[in-house]
Design a protein that fits this description.
alpha+beta, 5-stranded antiparallel beta sheet, 4 helices, 18% strand, globular
Length: 163
């Protein structure tokens, strides 16, 4: 019989707090990481390195929508995940393990966690890509087995409450 998650003072279960700790540790310990997002298979933001910036912020050009927020990273991660999954399917390439995009002013890494969930990292242009990828793989290894449907639901609700 499944054990009910235990909650702590902030209302999050110990499993959710552990994932938050792992994400915070990833950002704090790896030089060059700007932001991190964990996205569910349906594109919803589950965890963010900047949860206070998940709500849409006004853009200087007057357009509505988030800019530079974790919502932006979640959208990019979800889109890249869908695109690379489709490409792998067309090419009979099997499961996508990691996607990396390098730009003049930064890099974006996307790595599969479990059952379609994705870890996305936005990093500085001078980051050590091998170090970032290694620490992402560590996060995935530690987080993948605990990211149950119940925990994903709890994380979604906590992110909605942060907005």
């Amino acid at each position: 019989m499944a054990q009910a998650p235990t909650t702590h003072g902030n209302g999050l279960s110990s499993q959710a707090q552990n994932l938050h700790w792992l994400l915070t540790n990833l950002v704090d310990e790896v030089p060059g990481i700007r932001s991190v997002a964990v996205v569910s298979s349906d594109g919803l933001l589950l965890l963010s390195s900047d949860p206070d910036r998940t709500a849409a912020t006004a853009r200087p050009d007057g357009d509505d929508g988030p800019r530079g927020s974790s919502a932006d990273l979640a959208t990019i991660v979800s889109g890249l995940g869908s695109l690379t999954h489709g490409a792998a399917k067309l090419m009979d390439g099997g499961d996508v393990k990691q996607t990396m995009i390098t730009m003049d002013e930064g890099s974006v890494f996307v790595m599969s966690i479990s059952d379609g969930s994705l870890l996305g990292v936005h990093a500085a242009p001078d980051c050590d890509m091998n170090v970032v990828a290694y620490h992402m793989a560590l996060f995935v290894g530690r987080a993948g087995h605990v990211l149950t449907p119940e925990l994903r639901s709890e994380l979604r609700m906590s992110m909605e409450g942060a907005q």
